[in-house]
Structure formats: C-alpha cells, structure tokens
Amino acid sequence: MMAIRLAAVAIWVTCIPASAHAQAVPGTLVQVENDALDVWLPQKQRPDGEYTNGIRVSLSRATAPLWGRFVRSAAPCTGREAIGARCLTTEFAIAQQMYTPEPLSHRASQLQVGAPEDSTISAPIPGDRAFAGWLHADVTANIISEKRLTSFGIVAGITGRESGAEALQKGFHHVIGQVDPPGWRYQLGLFPAASVSYTDHLRLAFSAQDGRDFFDVMPSWNAQLGNARTGAYGELEARIGYHLAHPWSPGARARAGPRDFGIWLYGGVRESLALYDQLLDRSYAKNDTTFSVDRIPWVNSYDFGIAVRRHSLTITFGGTHTGKEYKTEEVPNHSYGTITVTVDRGLKP
To answer: How far does the chain reach from its first CA to its final CA, in angstroms?
Structure first.
C-alpha cells in the first residue's frame, strides 16, 4: 500500500504546473511537500499526520508595482545590474497546507498496540491537534543585491472546508484505495486570516580559481505579525557543490556567465518562536465539547537536500525535520519531504 501511495504522490507532483518557494529571481516555481516523501526513513517510521501535505505555486517577475516608488536608487531587475547595485522583483503565490492528527496517537491510546496495519486517521481525541486546511495567497516584495535579499510579504487566506484540504485528501485517498479520514467533520471552521512579514538574507560565498562559487553560507531572520501567525525565526543555510547558482541575484548570475549544469547539496538549521499560530491556538468542537492544544513557543528544525540545475531548470529534493510544536504531540520529530521545480527566467541556455 505504501508503494502505491508513493507512486500516486509522484504522479500528483508531475501533474502540477511549474513554480518555487521564496522565489526572488524572476521565474516560475512549483513546490510539493508531503510526509510520504521522507524516503530516508524506514517505512514504519514515516509519519502521516501533523503537517502532512503542502502545495505552493509562485510567479516572480521583474516588476515593482506601486511599492517600488518607495525604494530609492533601485529599479526592477534586468540582469545587467552592476556589482553593489540593488534591483526589485515581486513574487505572487498561491499555496495550501494540510494538517491532521498523527495516527500514532490513536494506535497508542485507543487500540493499545504497537503498530496495527490500519493507519486511518480517525476522529481527533483529546490532545490531538485539529484537522485543518489553510489556503492562502502571498505577495512578496524583494529588494535584491549580490550580498543581501530583503523581503516584505503579506499573506491572506482562509481555513475551513473552503480551503479545499478535506476534498484534496479524500480525493487522494480514493486514488490510492484508502478509506476517507472521518475526522474532517471536526476541522477548524471558515475563518479569514492574514499576516505581514519581514525577512532578511545575507550571503557569504567562496569561489574556485575560475571564479565560480562552490560553497556559500546564508544567515537569515524573519518576523511575522497577524492573526494567521505572529512570531519570528532565525536560520542558517549552507550549500556546497559544482557551479552554485546565485540564490537570488539575476545580475550576479549574468556576470557569472553561462552555466549549462550545476549540482549541489544543502543543509540548514532554524529556531522559531511562535507567539500565535491559528492552526494550533484555535480550538475545535466535537460532540458539543471544545478541544485545544498547548502550543510550544520555541521550535527547532533542520533541512537537507540536493539540487540539480540544467540551463534554466532546477529540480530540488530534500527533507525537513521539525521538533514538537505542542505538548501532547506524540511524534517528537516530525518529518516530510519536499520536491521543488523551478523554471528560471534569470538564467538562459
């Protein structure tokens, strides 16, 4: 059954149009995250809950409608910027995330056995997080230089059945021959939410004798404010490989010259502070009883993966492990895999 599930995920990924996450360079990106993709774990250890699925499609363009007038000495990116010059891009994205209780809680609490064959995600029990879907649109304004990327973002969306998460999971379970998860009747209800964010990235790169980068380190920090999420994080990411593409500057990529092929490994760590998270702080009702969880403010995570680039196409596969987000979460280190496909207008064959 797991083999069928993974095959269905692969088909599903290839059927989505193309896009990427935090895409500052002009281009198109699609990103799919799913806990069925954490193939580095033994099958029995792979989760099927918490953050269980995500899809993001984005378009980044060398434009700065309205907001660009507030940034002095910078214009939309052309790829011909001099060293030290700043330029502007705007990213438009639509995304959906899906959250469900981890089946392990029901196996442990209700069945009182080690690992039954039935892994259906049942109705939530006390201590479980809510079933939830989060459908949102994002707009991100990027101010780009060779060593720094500053981004201002706004996200607005809805939870509830209207988010499409229930229909998506039930449809997917029909494809792979599993029963419908019954707990969606208790999902978080329809509610509009929005947040604004500020993110700053820096980059330190090391080059070979031919001038092409083979290693870089990128610290970043972020702050968010709103009724979708309020919090902050700090992150340190590193890459090593052959012909690293600059992560955000079209001008730096153009100055590096044609690169028909590149491959690199990446890894990073993040420490997050959540002051409010609607997906954990909102309560849900079941049989006239209200349930909620006790959120953990500080959460650490790490990610790793590999990326391959050919001309303007980049394909990335990686994984993320996240620590406990609430006190009654039974899986202390939740994991999921990520596939990202990017078609980059900033790179030409």
So the answer is: 41
CA contacts within 13 A on the Cβ side of 312: 16
Show the CA angle centred on residue 163, arms to residues 159 and 164, nearest 5°: 145
Q: What is the pTM of this model?
A: 0.86
Annotate 221-233 with DSSP letters as a single string.
EEEEEESSEEEEE
Report long-range pairs for 290-294 (Cβ below 8 Å, ≥24 apart): 291/124, 291/126, 291/128, 291/130, 293/127, 293/128, 293/129, 293/326, 293/327, 293/328, 293/329, 294/326, 294/327, 294/328
> Mean pLDDT over residues 23-31, rounded?
92
Domains of the chain: 2-344 (2.40.128.140)
Which pair of tokens denotes residue 347?
A: 């790179």
CA angle 320, 322, 327 (to 5 degrees): 160
**For the residues of 70-138, what is the DSSP string, one character each?**
GSTTEEE--S-PPTT-EEEEEEEEEEEEEEE--HHHHIIIII-SS--S-----S--TTPPPPEEEEEEE
Residue 337 in contact with residue 39, Cβ under 8 Å? yes
Is residue 205 a contact partner of residue 218, using CB atoms and an 8 Å limit? no
Question: Strands, DSSP E only, in 246-297?
Answer: 261-277, 284-286, 289-291
- pLDDT, one tens digit per residue, over 136-180 is 999 999 999 999 999 999 999 999 999 999 999 888 777 867 677
